[in-house]
Amino acid sequence: MSLAAKVVLGVALVAAALFLSSLGRAPFVDPPEGFHAVIAWEMLRHGDWITPHINGVRYFDKPPLLYWLMAGAFRALGPGEMAARLGSALPALGVAALTAWLGLRLGGARVGLVAGLVVAANLELFLFARLVKPDLLLVLCILLAFAGLLEAYLRREEARDGRWALLIFYAALGATVLAKDILGALGPLAAVAVFFAVTRERNVARRWIPWAGVLLFLAIAMPWYALVEARNSGFLWYTVVDNHILNLARHRVFPDEDVPLSALEFLAVTAIGFLPWCLAAPWALWRRLRGPWPAPEDRAWLLLAIWAAGSLAVFTLSPFKLPHYGLPAFPALALLVAKLWDEVLEGAPGAPSPRALLAPPFLLFAVAAGAAFLAWRGYLTLPAGALPSADVAARNVAARGPDLPFMSGAQLAPLFRSLTAVFSLGALAAAAGLALRRPTLGLGALLAAMLAFLPFAAEGFELFARSRSVRMLGDAVALRAAPGDLLAHEGALENSGSWLLTLDPPGRAPAPAPVKVVNGLVSNLAFGASFPEARDTFWDADRLAAAWRGDRRIFLLSAASSERSVTRTLPPDTLHLLLEAGGRRLYSNRP
Fold this sequence. Notes:
This protein is mainly α.
């Protein structure tokens, strides 16, 4: 086996151990996981692979690639947390392996190994690898597009045939459109256009826009959009105009619950998610952007720097941004940081000193160890507002009602004890690298500390998921509800999506009646609610109040605060609180 194959395989094995272990241990985090899982389950159950549905309502906010993959996993493994999360964990593994390969191609074995481990050993990518969301599918497709383009670029400079690599670029861009949306393709294309302008590339259209590539892109990206528009008039207007153009202007016709971050919050969340590697990122970006770029490899690194810096700058300046919008830049940042470390270890001219790269992470680990110790002993608590800044769901709910529940200090104490040990050892090893002037030891200490930290982050994720889970309430309804009972949910249905899985388990026939959604039109389902078959699914408070006084038993699941809840308008003698868990309450009009 060649050295290159060993490096990629080694990174893939480390990533598999990180991303695939204990995927099904934590319950679905609601929101957002259960909502996406139910869409895939309904796709498989009802056989409509073109128009996604949830609760019988058409859903248009995300394209189908994630749902197709999850539906396939559900068919093989059954609907559940592990099968659903494979759609994020396997792309994360692919990101790590492909980053290692690209590092090998551009900088050698050490750059590939370090880049692959850096992109795997950061908190944000690790957590998204355990969340049912399409973001890591998008990251993988974007990275594959850049890998194809860079391979074609280098082969052209080496006078070798790179047409197949250029076709990979266009195919991967087409896949980004199915993974997230059209912006997934426009962003990389804009970065490539800037790159060609900076490097003064000539004959761009003839060399880099072949008809075969354009046709391949269209063949992958466009058929689903055309079919959905043919079946659902107005879909393209909603996707392109309302969901993007009007969203940026903050004047949507069909608004959802998402509350954007400020520029400072976005930068802070992105930096925390990429710790400790973000501390070296400014050095890495500056060295690649400042020029000159005499060799093809130098220009390849320039393209990665343009993508990383440009995408982060665009979202920082954009009026609408969410915490995970920085993720697509992480593989490029990991490659740039790995290249910087390689130059430091080689003593390249103009490279920063080892002390300049090691001292900030040493201080970070020392501070983190101290903070974890104080939190373990109960002297330090999470700052108010920290969770809503990092978690979209918590931010959305906090803007319209009570804060979602969070783990108690007693639950987190064992975790903080372990983190005290991890960060203390990491700080000591980094200090040894500084004292002995052994930068290789220091770099190894940073990688080892982050790889040791992430399994404990998985434990924290499990505690967090249990604090937010709707499973207990869903099971309570499934045990108590009888045919003819009416089920209702107060607020946007995505806030308790996995509830629907407990109502529609495998083997059940026929499918249950749709849950009534009360005061839930500010939602990702707002456009779907405008179609005729969904109008009876969405109720206002008056309609619920009328049904509440009727003969049918009603179960109402609510995440709204008591001050804002529709339950304030219901007769007190008919309002029975059955159960409270996960920041939600289950009511009935019968004892």
